[in-house]
């Protein structure tokens, strides 16, 4: 067969990208592959980015034919994104955010949320699968000589903040798409790999032992932080990821919507009411207006023009203004305020009854989220706490020079207060495509002698155990947290069996509460926490174990110990090992992220 | 013995059929490539993936691009991105410059985006307009104006730098879609 490739896939919240590199050639370059997609009915085009949108055709529409399938009833990509404004109930967006949201059953058909009855809803896992499947089809169309993606090695990126369950579900979608040789990689790490690939050997002149790189990745829908240290390993320089941030659903789309809201309100005071088509066009117009104003501070304002809905364009357009001062006030000071290093994101009290929806960040100030991240991992008193010395920016939002400068100035202000040197900026390029490129490069590095970022799992994991005590009305039994997987477990390793035993009823599904922590680095497998602060442990969706009744009596209680391992793919595997095995090495796998309703309680 | 030659109608039909099989059948394409003397590597091709479930995979008819469909596609792009047809079709007489200007901004931004993403347009001459230029010999790239007489070299002032489309990439036209429908009517259901 043709040459084996490594394929990097950025499965983004708002966009996907694909990069490939051949395995064999020693100085292989990574190449971004344009993705064929429908841009309008009957019209397909190759574009570097595939919008992560899925549209389901109505019976009134002709098939959404692609070059490789003339009968298709759904579309992925630009056409789907455009239909998002025209027929939103038929469109799935942000499938990836749903994948990491434990508030719904992520394997059950529930998207699009408000789908009309003619649409068979699909699960977040299937929506992700369809995006991946489209990438596969486009790959085959673009490079027929290379066959299917399944024949190659695939590196799929996930947010560093994805928990073990969301990572599992991502792999499930990849397996459904037929990718058997798949590996997961954290997005901020991918961005750093892209930087290394692009700088060649010169990267060693930019980074030296003792450097700590802060990766700030602000995409269309999510914001992700990581800290990566340059350390000495066997006499040469190595990289180690030491901390990752929380999952923050906040990105460029929020900024465009905020500006659209401001301009829309001004128009409303002039008596110009906008319908939802125009609001969506307004967000679009504000995005390009924002880009102009951010790139030229001397510009006082730009006209924001909304086309008429009908063919009478002249006289039917609505004109508004986006002013420099509004962009400064709402964008810079709203999303990137200069805050003190000790500020915390403001939590908004949730209304008693909330609709099913994604847990968007309640504080839009990205700098405040950054301050909280650094307070926890870089500015504290722990031995691992050390301020960053360099910054790598990634994500489309940070293409704007003004925003990068604001983030850097704010960060350097915090560093100065601590008497630390200002952070250097690592010159990244192609902020939209770096993650896919870096993923492909990582695929090469994994098999070659190139430099790898170490770090292992980004969290420690805990199982909730109820302490035995007499039932008291109105009082929940106290729960302690048993550490089953410590922080920083590397691929292919497993824990020792912890001393604790858990008891499981044969033939009945047993659920356990499940927790993750990105801050408790000292806990070992078997550590038992009696109490913890709410910021230390985050409750994750429940996990479940069913002991098959084969060879045992249903209803019997069996003592097990929990053992964790990290698979070659990079996912967490939890197994229950029988204390009194019926057959040698008797063990059962525990399913992560089983159903919704887990996040309640605590 | 070489096979007998085919008649023109048969050859036309065969070329039509083969075009699609080459596009959608990797194995067949490899055999054709071998016939053409290119390096044959039939066994190198992986087996095509089985169609998923029971959904029949129907190959799309990719319309053969002709000059006029290309022009229609370009019109469709300019309309979709920049409302070009709306703008040109409307009578501007009754509107003041502010209204026309507002619409023009929109048309300019969208059409510019459409043009830039689908065509690479470069100047024919790199000199600044208004500068003196010597043309060593006559060229179809440069139109002589003014006192057009005499022989090369031609000395004059560059009045327009000229444009050349270096590259034009149009979308693939698919299926039963009528390229003449450059913008569908819109009916909003409530």
Outline:
By secondary structure, chain A is an alpha+beta fold.
Low-pLDDT residue intervals, each spanning 5 or more residues of chain B: 37-52
Radius of gyration of chain A, whole Å? 25 Å
Percentage of helical residues of chain A?
25-40%
Beta-strand level of the residues of chain A, as a percent range?
Answer: 25-35%
What is the terminal separation of chain B in angstroms? 72 Å
Distance between the termini of chain A: 55 Å
What does this structure look like?
The complex is a heterodimer of chains A (602) and B (190). By secondary structure, chain A is α+β, with helices and mostly antiparallel strands. Chain A folds into 4 domains: 5-185, ATPase, nucleotide binding domain (Nucleotidyltransferase, domain 5, 2-Layer Sandwich); 203-250 and 341-451, Nucleotidyltransferase, domain 5 (2-Layer Sandwich), CATH 3.30.420.40; 252-335, Actin, Chain A, domain 4, CATH 3.90.640.10; 460-590, no CATH class. Helix content of chain A is 26%, strand content 26%. In chain A, the strands form 7 sheets. In chain A, strands 1, 2, 3, 6, 10 and 11 form a 6-stranded mixed β-sheet that branches. Chain A has a 6-stranded mixed β-sheet with strand order 18-17-12-13-14-19, with helices on both faces. Chain A has a 5-stranded antiparallel β-sheet with strand order 24-21-20-23-25, with no helix packed on it. In chain A, strand 17, helix 11 (401-417) and strand 18 (424-425) form a beta-alpha-beta unit. In chain A, helix 3 (124-142) crosses helix 4, helix 5 (187-199) packs across helix 12 (434-447) and helix 7 packs across helix 9 (324-335). By secondary structure, chain B is an alpha+beta fold. Chain B is built from 5 helices and 5 strands, in the order αααααβββββ. Mean pLDDT of chain B is 79; it is low at 37-52. Strand 5 (43-47) of chain A pairs antiparallel with strand 5 of chain B, so a sheet runs across the interface.
């Amino acid at each position: 067969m043709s040459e084996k490739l490594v394929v990097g896939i950025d499965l983004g919240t708002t966009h996907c990208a694909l990069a490939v590199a051949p395995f064999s050639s020693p100085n292989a370059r990574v190449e971004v592959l344009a993705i064929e997609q429908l841009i309008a009915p009957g019209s397909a085009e190759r574009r570097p980015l595939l919008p992560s949108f899925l549209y389901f055709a109505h019976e009134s529409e002709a098939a959404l034919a692609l070059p490789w399938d003339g009968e298709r009833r759904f579309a992925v990509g630009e056409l789907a994104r455009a239909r998002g404004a025209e027929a939103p109930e038929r469109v799935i967006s942000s499938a990836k955010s749903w994948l990491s949201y434990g508030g719904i059953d992520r394997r059950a058909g529930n998207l699009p949320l408000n789908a009309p009855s003619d649409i068979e809803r699909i699960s977040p896992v299937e929506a992700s699968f369809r995006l991946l499947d489209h990438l596969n089809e486009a790959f085959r169309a673009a490079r027929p000589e290379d066959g299917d993606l399944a024949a190659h090695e695939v590196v799929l990126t996930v947010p560093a903040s994805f928990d073990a369950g969301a990572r599992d579900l991502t792999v499930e979608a990849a397996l459904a798409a037929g990718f058997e040789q798949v590996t997961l990689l954290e997005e901020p790490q991918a961005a750093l790999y892209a930087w290394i690939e692009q700088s060649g050997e010169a990267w060693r002149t930019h980074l030296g032992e003792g450097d700590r790189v802060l990766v700030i990745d602000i995409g269309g829908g999510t914001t992700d932080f990581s800290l990566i240290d340059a350390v000495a390993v066997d006499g040469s320089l190595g990289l180690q990821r030491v901390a990752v941030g929380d999952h923050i659903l906040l990105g460029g789309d929020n900024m465009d919507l905020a500006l659209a809201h401001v301009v829309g309100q001004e128009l409303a005071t002039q008596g110009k009411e906008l319908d939802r088509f125009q609001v969506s066009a307004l967000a679009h117009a504000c995005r390009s207006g924002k880009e102009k104003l951010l790139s030229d501070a001397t510009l006082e304002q730009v006209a924001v023009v909304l086309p008429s809905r009908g063919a009478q364009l002249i006289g039917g357009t609505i004109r508004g203004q986006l002013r420099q001062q509004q962009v400064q006030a709402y964008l810079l000071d709203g999303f990137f305020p200069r805050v003190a290093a000790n500020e915390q994101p403001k939590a908004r009290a949730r209304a008693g009854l909330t609709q099913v929806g994604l847990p968007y960040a309640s504080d839009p100030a990205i700098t405040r989220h950054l301050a909280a991240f650094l307070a926890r991992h870089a500015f504290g008193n722990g031995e691992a706490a050390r301020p960053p010395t360099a910054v790598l920016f990634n994500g489309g939002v940070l293409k704007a020079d003004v925003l990068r400068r604001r983030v850097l100035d704010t960060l350097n202000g915090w560093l100065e207060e601590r008497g630390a040197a200002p952070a250097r900026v690592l010159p990244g390029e192609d902020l939209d495509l770096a993650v896919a490129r870096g993923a492909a490069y990582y695929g090469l590095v994994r098999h070659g002698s190139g430099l790898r970022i170490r770090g292992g799992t980004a969290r420690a994991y805990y199982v909730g155990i109820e302490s035995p005590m007499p039932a008291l009305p109105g009082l929940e039994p106290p729960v302690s947290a048993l550490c089953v997987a410590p922080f920083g477990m590397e691929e292919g390793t497993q824990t020792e069996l912890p001393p604790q035993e858990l008891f499981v009823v044969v033939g009945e599904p047993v659920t356990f509460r499940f927790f993750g922590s990105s801050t408790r680095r000292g806990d070992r497998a078997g550590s038992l926490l009696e109490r913890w602060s709410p910021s230390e442990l985050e409750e994750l969706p429940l996990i479940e174990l069913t002991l098959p009744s084969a060879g045992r009596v249903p209803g019997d209680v069996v003592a097990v110990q929990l053992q964790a391992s990290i698979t070659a793919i990079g996912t967490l595997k939890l197994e229950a090992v029988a204390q009194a095995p019926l057959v040698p090495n008797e063990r059962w796998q525990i399913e992560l992220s089983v159903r919704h309703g887990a996040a309640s309680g605590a | 013995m070489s096979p007998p030659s085919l008649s023109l109608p048969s050859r036309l039909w065969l070329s039509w059929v083969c075009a699609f099989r080459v596009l959608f059948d990797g194995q067949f394409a490899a055999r054709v490539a071998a016939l053409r003397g290119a390096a044959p590597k039939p066994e190198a091709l992986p087996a095509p993936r089985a169609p998923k479930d029971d959904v029949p995979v129907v190959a799309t008819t990719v319309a053969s691009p002709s000059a006029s469909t290309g022009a229609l596609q370009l019109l469709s792009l300019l309309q979709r991105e920049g409302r070009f047809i709306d703008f040109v079709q409307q009578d501007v007489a009754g509107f003041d410059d502010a209204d026309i200007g507002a619409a023009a901004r929109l048309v300019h931004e969208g059409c510019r985006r459409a043009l830039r993403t689908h065509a690479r347009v470069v100047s024919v001459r790199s000199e600044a307009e208004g500068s003196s230029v010597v043309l060593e010999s006559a060229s179809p790239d440069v139109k002589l104006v003014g006192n057009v007489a005499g022989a090369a070299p031609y000395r004059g002032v560059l009045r327009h730098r000229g444009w050349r489309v270096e590259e034009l990439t149009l979308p693939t036209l698919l299926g039963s879609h009528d390229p003449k429908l450059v913008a569908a009517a819109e009916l909003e259901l409530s």
